Structure formats: C-alpha cells, structure tokens
User: What shape does this take?
Amino acid sequence: MKSYPQALTNPIFKLIGQIADEKQLSCYVIGGFVRDFFLKRPTPNDIDIVCIGSGIDLAKAVAEKLPGSPKVSIFKNFGTAMIKNASFELEFVGARKESYQRNSRKPAVEDGTLDDDQKRRDFTINALALSLNFKNFGCLLDPFDGLIDLDKQIIRTPLNPEETYSDDPLRMIRAIRFATQLNFKISDLSLAAIKQQSDRLKIISKERITEELNKIMMSERPSIGLALLHKTDLLRFILPELIALEGVEEVEGQLHKDNFWHTLEVVDNISAHTDNLWLKWVALLHDIGKAPTKRFDKKIGWTFHGHEYVGSKMVYKLFKRLRLPLNDKMKYVQKLVAMSSRPIVISEEFVTDAAVRRLVFDAGDDIDDLMILCEADITTKNTYKQKKYRGNFVKVRAKIQEVEERDRIRNFQPPISGELIMNTFSIGPSKKIGLIKEFIKDAILEGKIPNQYEAAFELMLEKGNELGLNVTQ
Ligand code: ATP
Ligand code: MG
Assistant: This one.
C-alpha cells in the first residue's frame, strides 16, 4: 500500500491519529483535501475526517486537546461534528452506509466500513482516503482507482452512475462543477446517465443548485460548465432564459448571432478580468432580454430594441427563483444589465463630453465594471471589427478619465442644495426645488456650466426667476 505522509505535515493530522489510536478507532482524511494534494493544488482549509465509529465522539476528544478547547458544533441529524478555528475547518463523520428512497436525497443511514463510506461518495477522485492511525499513517486507500482518474482527468462515479445520480441528483451538477473547476472530462457513462435523468434535479433545493452554479461561475472558464449544463439538459431547470437565446435565424438572407454561445464567451472573457461573482452574473444575463425583444425589420434587419431594459426587468424574478440575494447585489446586476449597451452606443458616434458625463453620472462607481463588461462583450471573429471596437473603447476610457479629472462626475454631489434653494427664495418644500436641481444637474452634464458653486448659483437665480420665484434677503 502506498504511503503519502508528506500530505499530512499539518500537526493536526498526527494529533487526530493519536486520539483515534487511544480510542482504538480507525480514522482517515478523505475527500477534497486528499484530491487537491494529489493535484498539487493548494490544499483547502476545510478538511473531512471519517472514522469507523462515532465521528462526534472523536471530534469532542480532539477539541479537548486543541489549544483553547474550541467549540464543537454537532449536527446530530447528520451524525457530523465540526471544529472551526482561524486556520482550518474540520468536519468529522462516522463511516456510513446509505440507502436512498426515490423521492428524496435524504438517505436512511447506518454505520458502515470505510469501504461502504467510500462507495457513497460522489466521485472516485473524491473518495481517496489517507489513514491517520500511527501504524499506517499516510497510507492511501483508493478502492475505485481515483488516482488513475486524477491522472486521466476524468470525473467518474464509484458505483454505477445511474444509481449514484438517482440517489442524489445534486451530484449531477457537482459533476459539472468539478469538471469546470478542474478542467476535467466527465466520463461518457456519467454524462449519459445525467442526461437521462436530468429532470430529477427538480427534487434538489434551489439553494444547493445555486451554490454549485456559483462555483461554476467562479471558475476560470465558466463556459465549460454552462455548456455541459446545456448539453445534459440540466439548464432547462436552472436558467431557461439562457436557452431561449440559442439559435440563429435567417430572414431575407440576414442572420443574427447566436446569443447563447455569445453569452458563454462573454462570461469567459470577463472571468479573465474579474473575480467579482456579480459582475460575472451581469455578463451571464446581459443579453437575456434579447429573446423577448427579437424582431425582424424589413429596413434594418434584426433588432433587439430595448433588450437591456427588458433584460434588467427579468433579473428580479430570476434571482428570486434561484434564491440569489435580493439586495444591493441584485440592484447592481439590474443596473449594469440595463446599462450594458451605453458605452457601445457612445463609442459608435463621435464621443462627446456630454455623453460621457451622462454615462459616468448614471454608472457612478460602477463605471469601471461597465467598461470591463463592454470589452468582454466583443466576441466578433472579424479582426477588422474587433480592432475597431477595441479602439473605440480606448477612446471612451480616455474620455472618461479626462471628464473625471475635470468635472468630478462619478460621485456627483449637487453644488446647490435644496435647502439653499428654499432659503434663497423663502419657500417651503415644493416641486420647484426638484425642477431647479434637475436643471442645474443637466446644465453641468451638458457642459453648459462647470461643476462649481458660483456658476450653479447664478443658474439657480435664473431658473427661479423663470419659475416666478423672488429672491428675498
Ligand atoms: P470543495 O470543498 O473544493 O468544494 P470537496 O470535494 O471538499 O470540494 P465538499 O462539498 O466539501 O467537496 O464535500 C466533501 C466531500 O464529501 C467530497 O469530497 C465527497 O467525498 C463528499 N460529498 C460531498 N457531497 C456529496 C454528495 N452529494 N454525494 C456524495 N458525496 C459527497
Ligand atoms: Mg470541501
């Protein structure tokens, strides 16, 4: 049996092994930690420990020996216990054997051997275990050839795939998540089994699905996972709005691009520039309004008029359905989807200061993210067009910087307050105050006056006069 004590240099493993020896329990580290060690990836801080016996008792004994005797969180229903400190998160579980009912992913559980426990794991590469007991410290237990699969870069289930996925359909999306994160292939048998029972995803809670989906989104190339979700039909139950973008139609010899595959490219492009999950969501949803707005116009060809607005209106329902947060993150996504064509429109024309000031005013602090989105949105394979679009954005960016330095529009604070207007004209709160403020703001954005107090004060007097207000000292 091959031994890998070099995986277990963290002293916590010796300690757990010693305590298990005292209790005469066999005990192993299993799952992601072992997998990532063999992949030479940074090993994760969440570490899964399995023992033949009570995982809860072992966790309690380990916690007593740790400095400061950290708290043990016990999840009785699952038979698991967790110890968390600043540097790791240890999860203990007793080895178990599971049997599943058809309509639930909550199995009936009984105690089992290590082999039973490895069988119930999702993938061979996640079933690798290293022994922690003194007599065989670091020995690898790999009954399903997970090491070979790591080498072949393949996602495969320990048991027959139909059963594994049917027992817990969350594994279908986990397979795709791991394939995306690791850039592995899913075995043909697995892929066929997933496709065949894709509709069983329905019994999985939206929260769990979204958690996996977000891990796909956070990968370097989310398109791997998104394409697999589509290929296996799982996407129908997650994001049908995206599927509606697939396909190319031709009328009178005019084609539009396939907005599904375009979107996947945009998500990959943006992933090269950001780790912001919500900006990635913007990229994923930036064109969803194109399916409901698609029209063919005899004069101008295909149009998607107002798709940014329609798309941004679709975000709330979609976020709610997927149990994504309905807070400022959602508002950010809505805003950027709604604004997703603005820099493009500007760049197509002569880039005026006024247009850029309006853009910066509306985008505020999100202007940089919006520009990243627009650059990621360039997926044309026509090198001439590509060069042209990129060149246009270079101009827009330069103009943004110029306008910013001069006019400080990004976090625009009106130079004239409502209070000052009320005092100057001795009036109470009224509609006219809003009108005057709006008038001043527009004048600044249009470049008619500078973003300064004196000029704005003058304009306030002028506009007040026009509205029939008198200055009273
Ligand atoms: P990461 O933490 O990087 O997402 P991981 O492999 O540690 O990867 P976890 O979700 O933390 O994944 O799960 C820990 C281990 O528990 C897995 O390696 C796997 O052995 C097992 N596991 C998790 N979820 C399932 C499941 N739905 N079915 C079977 N085994 C599972
Ligand atoms: Mg983990």
